[in-house]
Queue: 2 jobs
Job 1
Amino acid sequence: MFTIVEKRILNDSMTLMAVEAPYIAKKAKAGQFIILRVNEFGERIPLTVADYDREKGTITIIYQKVGKTTLMLDQLNVGDAILDFIGPLGKATELEGYKKVAVIGGGAGCAIAYPQAKALHNMGAKVDMIAGFRNKDIIILEDEMKAVSDHLILTTDDGSNGNKGFVTDALRKNIEDGANYDLVIAIGPLVMMRAVCNLTKEYHIKTLISMNPIMIDGTGMCGGCRLTVGGKTKFACVDGPDFDGHEVDFDEAIKRSRTYFDAEKEATHEYNC
Ligand code: FES
């Protein structure tokens, strides 16, 4: 059992939890994920390692209450325990050798983008962080992102924070103003990551994205997380979750992400009733 040692509400739909998992905390690196099962009746869901503390032996996860499992998880509080918590899974992001990087997060994706920015910042890279949200009320991790970047730009779709626009608008402006990025990292909804990749292709800037498809075993055996990258089948759980965004078949990934939409909606509805 894995005890929850911190629970923090980030906004109406997002929550941060720190969980006691010393063996995972000892090895975790930016870009990796864990798979958890809340209780013996629960399904397995992957969540990215948002942070880790090797001394305290804790792993931080951030989840959005979007379905039955995350609603079940949200019922737990400090002192309660999660039944299964496995990891670190997936490959760590390769961040060595970059000098100037734009790290882009879209909504909940900022929870995954933040550890990437932190790792790059700790390695001495210059980091511009661009974080996009629908409106100012759902902005998360602003202080944390500020602390690990040389420049943080926050955009909102509705302009409620005074900076209306999409992350791609801010990225294009930075590039045209002369930011000489040797890497862009984009993490968020598939349509956002596709838009960033279309933009960076124009400028021939290497772009990494983090894929978060449906996962079951997390060890490359079930095939649930398969994607097409560069014309080849890849498994996000063992080959990723990071991939060269210019090689990913986004149309297929978006279609597959909707496969269980109705079943997920039904399970959430039943859980709420
Ligand atoms: Fe089963 Fe990746 S989760 S192959």
Job 2
Amino acid sequence: MGGKYATETLEATKGGIARASAILREGGLVAVPTETVYGLAARADQAEAVARIYEAKGRPSFNPLIVHVADIDQARTLAEFSAEAGALAKAHWPGPLTLVLPRRAGAQLAAAVSAGLPTIALRMPNHPVMQALLRETGLPLAAPSANRSGFISPTCAEHVLASLDGRIEAVLDGGSCDSGVESTIVAVREDGKIEELRPGPLLIGEQRKGADRVEAPGQLASHYAPGKPVRLDVTTAENDEFLIGFAQVAGNCSLSASGNLEEAASRLYACLHEGARSDKPRIAVAPVPAQGIGKAINDRLRRAATPAD
Ligand code: TXA
Ligand code: MG
């Protein structure tokens, strides 16, 4: 792509992690592996570093970021944990759960991290490389998915480079992400009520219905878009369509030939990236049952199929 920065690819070794940590401490941008998708990390306590995330992604400034923490003690310095929030963290961290909590007064966080909201989104990821990096920096790291705003999320270092090469200092290559769709986002309200803002790998209650405002802007109708028309629930593709299969629908690439939903989630973005790269002008996707993690898969597919306005 050719940008301002020569993006380094760092191996997930002790040396690579130390180099990533040094870049982050200086206020630079490093794409990092997590168990869900790759994140674009910057130190969350420094306004200039956080501003660079928005700039590199082309992300609208009203869309707040998730802050990643090494452990629950660090999380408690940033947000107010009610008993309900503490119980959720204890049960599901480290893991693909993001908690939206009241921001703690005096928390060492750049204001732009939460885009002016009184809340903060926190997550303790379950990926050994990301955990080692969080411990090594000793800093909370803001990290949205490592893709240009609105496009397909990355589940390997190559996907990151496809959209951010030259715009960030480095990518820390930790291989392919296990779960493959972004974390479940849950808001814990002051009265203890829990609202699911984004479905994800962790299955938790019913998704909030009929919200009248965009509270987690990842919930914008068009998102995760491969840059060509996407048609859903297709069993027979047209000639000009790249078909993403599932179960008995074979397609040009398959989410899971055996119909396994976990496998389908882990391959979702790789298949969308392949469809985006192919010479076919359109993408079609086989039906995927909306059960379990299939709910998150269908959520992302619907947004990928909605044209941006
Ligand atoms: O799995 C994940 O969550 C990945 C990895 C890298 O951790 N991150 C991720 O970040 O998906 P991003 O920026 O693509 O999505 C973050 C979502 C957005 O929809 C944003 O609006 C929402 O989190 N969010 C962040 N802070 C929030 C807040 N204070 N209140 C409500 N929603 C918030
Ligand atoms: Mg994203």
